[in-house]
Design a protein that fits this description.
It comes from Dioscorea alata (Purple yam). It is built from 30 helices and no strands. It is mostly helical and about 525 residues long. It is globular and about 95 Å long. The N and C termini lie far apart (about 65 Å). The structure holds one DNA strand of 10 nucleotides.
DNA sequence: TTAGGGTTAG
């Protein structure tokens, strides 16, 4: 492990005290040991004013000069850690080690700061270990644990931990309720969400803007937009931006687009509101409306917002304007994995597989963003659309071996689809067999394999796949029968196709009628 | 001095 002195020497940080008043204060301090509280206050000021590097260097200076370090010293430095990309995980571990030596871990406040640092830096297990080893926990420690769970996508753990917290006898706060409501919303846990709504009412938190916003999000996520609107209208106090945005998003999710646009028009929208209504344009494939909002976003100077631009890339791509999608993508200053995935998918779905692969290579060489499982679905799908089978197999292996991503059903479906469509039925069947063995079979995998069997006129295998599809118990039973019927028809087994249709009719199954949307602009 | 709500990709 590197020492602090080594860290400071090698660090790319070159200007330790770029804020003259801070340096001046330090220079003017003749007896620094006696002034540790003032230095701690200075540390906090650096963090509050968004100068984490200065905070770290002041901390290193204090450590080097044997100035007493306590909870008040560690808290601001720990909160600065997640914003210090150059520091890396070693800094967090070194701080943890120092806190242990100074006996700070027995106090709930610095221990909670440590938990939070690990959580925000992506070290879930370390964060939970800190909580487990805390000799004393207050309500904020519990709230930090709940936030850690939700931050790492463990909604059910959040809900369970809340009930453990209550059983322990800790009195929850509004912070607790809003965090657990977010977990209920993410996991669509309506029953527990309703219980929390009742608790919020009993304990008088229902008029809190934050709680009401969480409730709007909960009801919207559970498809109960009327209840979400009731929470919104039922609040007596003035609504804030986040709350209005929560309802705009809920209305978009519920496909109440006109209501969403109307509420948007009544507000002074920020980038989040713009993103929500752009999502509506994307759903509606309404390019003209999307362009108008893009222009307004430009005038309001919101186009440095990565999330907003990601939606714009999607709209242009979905509406077939690949050039605008690309020019929007190029203008994104801080491209994230969704920006890259969206533009790869844009080219791939237009049949421009080579361009999609070139973008993937560019993403790799640029190096600031790592591809994830979704990126590889876009890459594999791009290969499939363009018949780049060997490239597809290569990237399937790159995903596993280079990036350590375990293939999910969707990846297998892409692989089987491209092999089947390309007439490589034996290889597709081998992959399919592996998926069955692993217990990862999904309707998507079956559909891909069935289509491959259709292309290769392979009745025997097709019927095995059809049996698997039935056993999966897919909710869209009618869809399964239609696919099976089409399979028989596709290989010229008209009698089989007819029999399947007859079974459908006897069982009263009807395939939901497809629909299309067009936007008419006056 | 520690903790909470609204936005994007398959």
């Amino acid at each position: 492990m590197r020492s602090f002195s080594t860290l400071s020497r090698r660090s790319p940080i070159t200007n330790p005290f770029k804020h003259p008043p801070a340096q001046h204060l330090l220079d003017e301090m003749p007896h620094r040991d006696a002034h540790a509280p003032r230095l701690n206050a200075l540390l906090s000021a650096h963090v509050r004013n968004n100068h984490p590097t200065s905070a770290l260097l002041l901390f290193l200076h204090m450590h080097r000069h044997n100035i007493p370090l306590d909870g008040f010293t560690f808290n601001p430095v720990l909160s600065a850690c997640p914003t210090l990309p150059a520091a890396g995980f070693r800094l967090g571990y070194q701080l943890h080690s120092l806190m242990f030596k100074r006996g700070c871990l027995s106090e709930p406040i610095p221990a909670t700061s440590l938990l939070n640092m690990y959580s925000k830096c992506g070290f879930f297990d370390d964060a939970v270990n800190v909580f487990d080893e805390m000799p004393e926990r207050d309500v904020v420690s519990w709230n930090a644990l709940l936030s850690c769970y939700i931050h790492h996508g463990h909604s059910q753990l959040t809900i369970n931990a809340f009930f453990s917290m209550v059983q322990t006898g800790i009195e929850f706060t509004g912070f607790t309720l809003s965090t657990v409501l977010t977990a209920c919303s993410s996991s669509r846990s309506l029953v527990q969400g309703l219980q929390l709504h009742a608790l919020a009412f009993i304990f008088g938190y229902h008029n809190s803007l934050v709680i009401a916003t969480s409730l709007i999000d909960l009801y919207s996520s559970c498809g109960m937009i009327t209840q979400a609107m009731q929470v919104f209208t039922g609040l007596n106090s003035p609504k804030d931006t986040a709350m209005r945005n929560a309802l705009i998003t809920g209305l978009v999710q519920s496909q109440k687009y006109d209501d969403a646009f109307a509420l948007f028009a009544q507000t002074t929208p920020n980038a989040v509101a713009f993103t929500s209504v752009l999502t509506a344009c994307s759903d509606l494939l309404n390019l003209e409306h999307g362009k108008q909002i893009h222009c307004t976003a430009l005038r309001r100077d919101f186009t440095s917002d990565t999330i907003l631009c990601n939606v714009l890339v999607r709209i242009y791509a979905k509406c077939g304007d690949i050039h605008s999608a690309h020019s929007t993508f190029v203008m994104i200053d801080n491209k994230d994995v969704i920006s890259w995935t969206s533009i790869i998918d844009a080219y791939g779905s237009q049949g421009c597989g080579l361009e999609a692969l070139n973008l993937f290579k560019e993403m790799e060489s640029e190096g600031s963003v790592l591809p994830n499982a979704v990126t590889f679905i876009s890459v594999l799908s791009a290969c499939g659309h363009s018949g780049l089978i060997d490239e597809g197999i290569k990237y399937f292996n790159v995903m596993k071996n280079k990036y350590g991503i375990d293939p999910e059903a969707e990846h297998y479906a892409c692989l089987i689809d491209m092999l089947g469509k390309g007439g490589r039925i034996e290889e597709a069947w081998e992959v399919y067999g592996g998926v069955v063995k692993e217990g990862k079979l999904s309707s998507g995998v079956c559909v891909a394999m069935l289509n491959g069997c259709k292309v290769c006129m392979d009745l025997r295998r097709g019927e095995i796949v059809a049996k698997h599809m039935m056993e999966l118990g897919d909710e869209d039973k009618a869809g399964v029968y239609v696919l099976l019927s089409n399979f028989y028809a596709g290989i010229g087994r008209w009698k089989g196709a007819e029999e399947v249709r007859k079974v459908m009719e006897d069982r009263g199954l009807r395939k939901e009628v497809g629909s299309s949307v067009i936007a008419i602009c006056w």
